[in-house]
Amino acid sequence: MIKMIRKGLMIVLVCIIFVFPLITRQFFLVHLGIMIFMWATLGIAWNFLGGYAGQVSLGNAIFFGIGAYTPTLLMLKAEIIPFAGLIVAILIASGFALMIGWPLFRLNGHYFSIATLCLGELMLICFTNWRWAGDARGLLLPIKGTSLLYLQFSSKTGYYYLCLIILLLTLAVSKFIIETRPGYYFRAIKNDPEAAFALGINITRYKVIAFMLSAIFTSMAGSFYANYVLYIDPDSTMLLQISVMMALVTILGGVGRLWGPVLGATVLVPISELSRIYFSGGGRAIDIILYGVLIIIFAVFKPRGLLSLLDGFVSKEENTDNYSTRRMSLIDTLIDKFDVLIHKRGGMKVE
Amino acid sequence: MSKLKCEGLTKNFGGLVAVNNVTFSVSEREILGLIGPNGAGKTTLFNCLTGFLKPDRGKILFKDLDITNLSHYKIANCGIARTFQLTRVFNDLTVLENVMVGSLLHYPRVKEAREHALEILEFTDLYPKSNYLGKSLTVADRKRLEIARTLATEPTLIMLDEAMSGLNPKETEQAIELCNKLNEKGLTIILVEHVMEVIMPLSHRIMVLNNGSLIAKGKPEEIANNPKVIKAYLGEKWNAKS
Fold first, then answer.
1. Contact A60, A218 (CB under 8 A)
2. Structure pTM?
3. Which of A191, A200, A321 sits opposite B76 (nearest CB)?
C-alpha cells in the first residue's frame, strides 16, 4: 500500500517537474526551478569529494568560474561556439583539479579545506585584476537568440530543460560512480584512510578522481550559468559564498547521499531567493542571518541532513534483522516526539 | 624457500633506535610469532615490513622481490596484508561492504567482489552479520572483520598485530581456530601477541624483540626456557609453569 502511494507520488512529481514551465506563466517560478537544478548539480558535484570521499573543499567555485569564463572568453575572443567551449571548460577544469589535486592531497582534513579556500580566493583576485579577461567589470555575452549550439534560449523554458538535462546527467553519473569500485573506495577513504591504504587502495589517486569528477560537473554548471545570465564577473562566479553554498546544499540535504543535494537545493534555494527578495536591501543582510540560523538549527537537530527525515518513507530495503542500526522513520520520530509531549503535559497535570 | 626475508633492518625515531639491525626470514606456510615487552619495537617492525614506515637501513625481500621502499598499497597488491593493533573497521559501511572494499582489489566488478566477499564472510563465520554496520560490532567481531577484510585482498602472507588482545577466552579460542584454518589454506602468518596462551601453541617459531633488537629466535619450547627471554619478558613464573 505504502509502496503504491510512493510510486504514485513519484510519478506525479516527475510529471510536474517535466511540464511545469509549460503550464506556469510565472517566470519567477521557472527561474526558481532553474536555480534549484543548478544548485542541486553543484551540490552533487561537491558530494563526490566532500560527501563520499570526505574531503571538504571550500574552493569549488574555482571550477564554477572556469566553467563560466572559458566558453565566454572563447566566444568573445575566438568566436568559438559555447557548446565547444563547454567541452574545453570541462577539460581545463578537470586538468586543473588534477594539477592542484596531487599536491593538495598531501594535506588532511581541515588543512585541505583551508588550502582550497585560499586557492579560491587567489583565483578571485587573479580574475578581478586580469584585464584581458574583463577584470572586475566582467564580461557580457552577445545575444544570439535561441540556439542549442550557442546554449542560448529566448525564453526561460529552454534553460529550464537544459539545466534539467545537466542535473539528470550528473545524477546518473553520480549513481553509477557510487555503485562501482570508486564509490566503495571513496567511502572507505572517508571512513579510515589508513585502513583503506592497507587494503591496497592508492588513496591519493582516488581522491584526485573524486576531485576531477567534482570539477567536471561544477564547470558544466558554470558554463550553463554564464549562458543563462549572459553576464559574468568574478564576484558572481568565484566568490567564497558560492563554494560555501555548494557545501551547504549538500550538508543540508544529506552528505554522501545521492539525493541529498537535490533535497538540499529544493529547500535552500527558495529560502535564499525569497529572503533576498523580502529581507535584503538596505545592506541589512537579514537574508544571510536567516540563512545562518537555519544552518545552525540543522547542524544541531539533524546533523545527517534533511534526507534522514525521509528515510523510513523512501528507503527501499529495510534490514529487519539489523536492529542495532535501524534508522527511525519519520512516523516513528513523530510518535516519539508526540509521546514526550503528552508525558510532559500529563506530568504537569499531576503537579 | 623463504617467503619473506628481512636483512639488517633498522629504524630510528630521532635518537631512539626503535628497530635495530633485525634479520630474520619466514618460510612458506609458517606461523611466526613475534613477542616482546611493550615498546620493544614490534609494531614499528610491522610498519616497516608493510611499507607504512620507511626503514633507515636494511632490505626486505618478498620472495625475490625487493619491497623495501614500496608504498603500502603496492605491497598489498603483491599479496601482503596486515591488520591493526587498534581495529580500523570502516564504521559507516556494513560488514559486507567492509569486506567488499578488500575484494575490489582483485575483482574490480562490484558483482564479483560481492560474491567473493560473501565467500570470505562464510569462511570467517561473519556471514550472519553481513548487514550490520561496522560501528555496531563487538571488539571480537571487529578483529575478525579486519582479518576477513585483509583476506579479501587475497594475500599469501598475513600479518596480525595483536589480533587476539582484549578477547575473552572463548573468543580467543575461536580466533586461534581461525588462524589455524588460514594456515591450512596455505597462508603464511606473522603474528604479534602478548597472550602467551595463544602464541605458544599456535606458532611454529617465535622471535623475541627487546629494545629494538632480536634477542632470541627458535621453537616455542626453546624460547620458553631461554634465560634472556625470561629475564626480558616472560618472567620466572612462566618458566616454572612450562
1. yes
2. 0.85
3. A200
- What are the distances in angstroms from CA B56 to CA A229, B4, B14, B23? 59, 19, 11, 14
Q: Name chain B contacts of A196, Cβ cutoff 8 Å.
A: 90, 101
Return the pLDDT at A326. Answer: 38
Q: How far apart are CA A307 and CA A305, in angstroms?
A: 5
Q: What is the CA radius of gyration of chain A?
A: 22
State the Cα–Cα distance between residues A258 and B182, nearest whole angstrom: 39
Q: Which residues partner with B65 through β-bridges?
A: B62
pLDDT of A349 over the 60 cut: no
- pLDDT tens for A266-323 read 988 888 888 777 776 666 677 777 777 877 887 777 777 788 777 655 444 444 333 3
The crossing angle, in degrees rounded to 10, of helices A156-178 and A181-191 is 80
Query: Which chain A residue has its CA at the smallest distance from B73's CA?
Result: A200
The domain limits of chain A are: 26-239
B140 at A interface, C-beta within 8 A: no
* Whether the predicted pLDDT of A83 surpasses 60: yes
**Which ranges constitute the DSSP H helices of B3-109?**
42-49, 72-78, 95-103
Whether residue A198 and residue B50 make contact (CB cut-off 8 A), yes or no, is: yes
Residues B157 and B62: beta-carbon distance below 8 Å: yes
- Check CB contact under 8 Å for B101 and A184: yes
CA-nearest residue to A318 within chain B is B131
Please, what are the domains in chain B? Answer: 2-88+155-241 (3.40.50.300)
Cell of A256: 554522501
Distance to chain B for A285, nearest Cα, Å: 39
Contact between A212 and A98 under an 8 Å Cβ cutoff? The reply is yes
Over chain B (242 residues), what is each successive 10-residue block's mean pLDDT? 84 87 88 86 87 87 85 86 87 93 91 93 90 89 90 90 83 87 90 83 88 86 82 66 48
Choice between A54 and A312, residue whose per-residue pLDDT is larger:
A54
User: Taking CB atoms and an 8 Å limit, are B105 and A184 in contact across chains?
Assistant: no
Residue count of chain B? 242
Q: Is B38 on the interface with A (CB under 8 A)?
A: no
Q: How many CB atoms lie within 10 A of CB B122?
A: 12
Tell if the CB–CB gap between B88 and A181 is shorter than 8 Å: no
With CB atoms and an 8 Å threshold, state whether A191 touches B93: yes
All three cell numbers of B241: 609453569
Q: Which of B90, B100, B136 is opposite residue A192, by nearest beta carbon?
A: B90
CA pair distance A284, B94, nearest whole angstrom: 48
Q: A180 and chain B: CB distance < 8 Å anywhere?
A: yes
Disruptive mutation site among B75, B92, B142, B143 for chain A (greatest number of A CBs within 10 Å): B92
* Separation of alpha carbons B99 and A205, rounded Å: 21
